[in-house]
Amino acid sequence: MAVLVALALSSAGAIMYGIESARLDRAATAQAEQEIAEFRTLQEQGKDPNTARDFASIRDLMRVFLERNVPSDNELFVAWVDDKAAFVSASDHRGFGGSDELAALVARHVEDGAEFRADSSVGELLITVQPVHGQSSRGALVVVTFLDDMHADLTNLMRTYAIFSLLSLGVITMLAGWQAGRLLAPLRQMSETAREISVTDLSRRLPETGNDDISALTRTVNEMLARLEESFTTQRQFLDSAGHELRTPLTILRGHLEVLDEDNPAEVAETRDMLLDEIDRMARLVNDLILLTKSNRPDFITPGPVDLDALVSSVVTKARGLGVREWQVDATTDGVLLHLDEQRITQALLQLADNAVKHTHPGDVIAVGASVDHSDGTSSSTVRLWVRDAGHGVEPGDRERIFERFSRSAVLPGDEGFGLGLSIVRAIASAHGGTVHVEDAEPTGATFVLTLPFAADTVTEEEESWPAS
């Protein structure tokens, strides 16, 4: 930044000096031309004030002109007669008027006249020579303009400008350094914090202050760290859960294979059936864990328009194969369409239905239902999907814990589950922006409820079938 400021100040100074210098040169030329014009007027129309007649000699003409015209501070008038300076006007450089240096510069232009620049011991000069011819003599009016004197004020101004520019550059450099340090401080802190973050500890976050671009970058990095932490946590949970749950069936497999009597066909067949059953259980466990791992991915669900009544009816039909129960439909929604993933919601409801079968007896009632909640008084806000059973219910202390991975309430004989089913249901509900909870059923049993947001563009079947205009 300091380099750019220095270039800008230097360029501005150079441009200003060039423009002003050219203006002064034009003013010097114009001033000399004005003096020559006045001299010509006196030569052509003037009278000698002593005789009231035409000038008798070049010397008298020159004398009268120098008496009537006063040169500016940076000018010198020299009356050149017969190859020498006859009269010299008052000036700080009056001695230069009779010098041999000026005589050498003027001599070759006395006859024809000229305007030219020349370097001298007193600086750069603009010399204008106006020849005058008399009957018996010759001469010239020489106007000498001392250009260095004309540029003295400009030179002083540029010197002042240079000093001011250097001081300004120093101040700007210090301010820029201070500002850069202040702006880069969050980046340095971000770098230090990033170095302290490791795979084993992703909980650290960068401090967020202000609303500038650095703060926006800090928030973005924190969001990235949160996603990484969630991803690593999910992976660790997956590995811990898989290792924990696979250890038992693997131990069973190893133990039976170690004591297997290969010469006993009955024992081999029994062991084979048992090992295949354990392998099936491990396959179910792995599939459930993979499903839970995928639940945080954006492509976990593929929403589309779904008829809730048709969905409930389809779930009841499929659930009849889970067990001999009295399957019922509790409530319908009169053809409401909802934007959701039909396969995932069906999977969640069938998982709840399977749990209900495990905790009921043949002939017990299991009902599936759906309703729209208009509790806000203005428009539909949520949709409830539930599975109700007539079993023994869920203890109040277990109603939150059962939705955690590998957590179970009462384990019935013959239940070979891993405690992942309700975790999968909660993952599906969360992916839709909803929740799942359990409440008491009437007169007995439990009701597992999925509460999902009602899509803003949801329409009824009647509205959907109305022809577009």
Q: Mind explaining what this structure looks like?
A:
It catalyses: ATP + protein L-histidine = ADP + protein N-phospho-L-histidine. There is one protein chain. This protein is an alpha+beta fold. It has 3 domains: 153 residues, Beta-Lactamase (2-Layer Sandwich); 82 residues, Helix Hairpins (Orthogonal Bundle), CATH 1.10.287; 163 residues, Heat Shock Protein 90 (2-Layer Sandwich). It is 51% helix and 17% strand. A 5-stranded antiparallel β-sheet has the order 2-1-5-4-3, sandwiched between helices. Strands 7-9-10-12-11 form a 5-stranded mixed β-sheet. The protein has a two-stranded antiparallel ribbon with strand order 6-8. Helix 1 packs antiparallel against helix 6 and helix 7 packs antiparallel against helix 8. The C terminus is likely disordered.
